[in-house]
Specification:
Keywords: Iron, Iron-sulfur, Metal-binding, S-adenosyl-L-methionine. One of its GO terms (molecular function) is metal ion binding. Its cofactor is [4Fe-4S] cluster. The protein is of the alpha/beta class. The protein has two domains: about 5-300, Aldolase class I (TIM Barrel, Alpha-Beta Barrel); about 320-400, no CATH class. The protein has helices spanning about 5-15, 90-100, 115-135, 150-160, 175-180, 185-210, 235-245, 275-290, 295-300, 310-320, 335, 345-355, 360-365, 370-375, 395-400, 410-415, and strands spanning about 55-60, 105-110, 140-145, 165, 220-225, 250-255, 325, 380. A six-stranded parallel β-sheet has the order 1-2-3-4-5-6. The longest helix is centred in the middle third of the chain and has 24 residues, at about 185-210. The termini are close together.
Amino acid sequence: MNEKMITKLEILAESAKYDISCSSSGASRSNKGKGIGNAHKSGICHTFTADGRCVSLLKIMLTNYCMFDCAYCINRQSNDIPRAGFTPRELADLTIEFYRRNYIEGLFISSGIVRSPDHTMEKMIRVVKILRNEHGFNGYIHMKAIPGASNELIDQAGLLVDRMSVNLEIPTEENLKLLAPDKDHQSIYQPMRQIHQNLLENIEDRKKFRSTPKFVPAGQSTQVIIGATDESDKQILQLTSKLYKRPSMKRVYYSGFIPVNGYDKRLPVVQDVPRMRENRLYQADWLLRFYDFNVDEIVNDQHPDLDLTVDPKLAWAIRNPQYFPVDVNRDSYQKILRVPGIGVKSAKLIVMARRHRKLTFEALKRIGVVLKRAKFFVVCHEMKKFKLLDSSADYIRLTLQEPPLQEPSLLEDKQNNAPEQLAMGW
């Protein structure tokens, strides 16, 4: 690889690292004896940094030139930073070269917007066409859809890639227009709806014609920036809940605001990335997807923001003593699932195990229940009752609250042990 290509790679990999919506997840694109690579739900090697970034993919921008001037973006037009761009063939060949060296299993491709959304989207599609059609590459590909791109280009891309994402960035239209005057929610939701509709139609077509190629088999994802604007956790989770009502939406990612640009009066002055809030939002997201909670149970008008001292499930349990104690030998799976310290797997094992014997303290421990938490909220055979009403909420909170995350200053974070996208070695 020549020096010019190495320089481009360094610039464009650095420019791409702030997009965290690139995790590969469950796509299956088999290799039928032709070409190279194989994307399978258990075949892609995942390596995540501490803040959730996936580093098993070549995470790269086609170019970091951009006609937009979003206040929160390192690649905004007004920034004085090194700029570079690959041709579609250069990026396709680079991906294959890294795959053959066993550096990567797939590709995450995004781009700054140059000339127009359609022009940018066409060049990204060209990269994928070269990979699929000329190199026979069957590995995982995630493409960032460009807001404002035509439906025809979204249709083309969806038949070539495994996942597409369109980042919302800012949860409310008002704040989006403040920080990204070139964007609006209509242009962002339009490709989201197009991907969703095409995916549903593709599923129906495949039921009739098995030879129909899959459309974004791994669905779509999006990213929301946390802390750049004044939205409450309630507003963010209400948005998340609406997005998850679409079967095509697989993940919403929460990215703590990092002040990567110079002073801008539109942005808050922060010293630390809100990692704890980011973590709590992911926990709340998990409750929405897997624990049958609704948004109003997690956050409401009285508690519009998540408690940073305890996780959302425990916070809900402390606020709702009337639901406890739960009898693990009698109560339903849904009630058991809401006990702090009992996860989905443990709840299922409890329901299975109690068919054969009465569950005791030791049995729950063997199943995998975190008794330090659960003991305040459950009743079981030959087990002392630890009723929430018998223990004050303050005592439970003090006993179970988590130590605060160690959040070094942004300068130290950058210089020392900040989670970073891995760099390629030569």
